[in-house]
Amino acid sequence: MLRALLSGLGWRKGIWGCAFSSWQPHQPPVGLLSATEVVSHWTAVFEEKGIPEARESSEYIVAHVLGAKTFQSLRPGLWTQPLTPWQLQCIQELGSYRLQRMPVQYILGEWDFQGLNLKMAPPVFIPRPETEELVEWVLEEVTQGPRVVGAESSPLILEVGCGSGAISLSLLSRLPQSRVIAVDKGEAAICLTHENAQRLQLQDRIQIVPFDVTSVESWAHLLSWGPVDLVVSNPPYVFHRDMEKLAPEILRYEDPVALDGGEEGMDIITHILALAPQLLKDSGSIFLEVDPRHPELVGSWLQSQPDLSLNLVAMRRDFCGSKDTEAPVGQMCAQDGTSGHGH
């Protein structure tokens, strides 16, 4: 799980800052002053305390303090150059948060997703690498595939549950003529998506709307934007019984509402599928990140809802495993079949 959490971290000032303290339980012994030696020291500390991805965690923290995204991207001279007392203290402060199982993204305050540097802040859900695959699939369908009829020129995309804005902003950056409506019911997520849109100068092509997908009445508010070509979502899909199995990094710091999909992980998925046809253009598509157990459940559910005119057309497995369980994540495309183009 943590391998996904650590991928592609960005560099800027961390959200926690660095303050000198007389409490120094894990300060390196005298003489361990270079970046390489400090990485080795903190790797040993993390391993002793059972922190996952111990070396990766220490490398990202040290690189962050030295002004780089990754340890490997540091100038070679910095690997052996003595660190200043302030740098050592800063590393200790950030390392202490990692010892509390805080995800590295929250410690550093930024993360790279699809080449975009995004601000990260708890408790907003941290996007994982498998979600980058979902973005690539959407881009493939829009630019090459026949399924998204008429969307190639200037698609209008709805993202349900935008979180940090990772999916929406990635699609906007890769599809210059596209427009996005990004919705989320969490105030922290709405604020973070606004901030990331502004820092990437994409705010002119995105509408960010507070929205609860479980409220049928609130969907009428979205109708004024017109029918959309695509609905994209990484919804809460963890089976409720699996929530207690999640790593401390997730349970302690990330919003459980962004993870818990109910008894069968389907609570939000079925809301999206039930209400999206009201907003989709003919032969529009819905792209979802789901659990590997969900395609069969979704297929059965759609068969029980023939009036929706939705067809499950494809399912893909991601390359690196689920963000939350041992099983691989699935990505699923459902399509409006009212015009005869569904599969």
From TrEMBL:
<dbReference type="GO" id="GO:0032259">
    <property type="term" value="P:methylation"/>
</dbReference>
<dbReference type="InterPro" id="IPR040758">
    <property type="entry name" value="PrmC_N"/>
</dbReference>
<dbReference type="Pfam" id="PF05175">
    <property type="entry name" value="MTS"/>
</dbReference>
<dbReference type="Pfam" id="PF17827">
    <property type="entry name" value="PrmC_N"/>
</dbReference>
<feature type="domain" description="Release factor glutamine methyltransferase N-terminal">
    <location>
        <begin position="37"/>
        <end position="109"/>
    </location>
</feature>
<feature type="domain" description="Methyltransferase small">
    <location>
        <begin position="157"/>
        <end position="243"/>
    </location>
</feature>
<dbReference type="GO" id="GO:0102559">
    <property type="term" value="F:peptide chain release factor N(5)-glutamine methyltransferase activity"/>
</dbReference>
<dbReference type="InterPro" id="IPR004556">
    <property type="entry name" value="HemK-like"/>
</dbReference>
<dbReference type="GO" id="GO:0003676">
    <property type="term" value="F:nucleic acid binding"/>
</dbReference>
<protein>
    <recommendedName>
        <fullName>peptide chain release factor N(5)-glutamine methyltransferase</fullName>
        <ecNumber>2.1.1.297</ecNumber>
    </recommendedName>
</protein>
<dbReference type="InterPro" id="IPR029063">
    <property type="entry name" value="SAM-dependent_MTases_sf"/>
</dbReference>
<dbReference type="GO" id="GO:0005739">
    <property type="term" value="C:mitochondrion"/>
</dbReference>
<keyword id="KW-0489">Methyltransferase</keyword>
<dbReference type="InterPro" id="IPR050320">
    <property type="entry name" value="N5-glutamine_MTase"/>
</dbReference>
<dbReference type="InterPro" id="IPR007848">
    <property type="entry name" value="Small_mtfrase_dom"/>
</dbReference>
<keyword id="KW-0949">S-adenosyl-L-methionine</keyword>
<dbReference type="InterPro" id="IPR002052">
    <property type="entry name" value="DNA_methylase_N6_adenine_CS"/>
</dbReference>
<keyword id="KW-0808">Transferase</keyword>
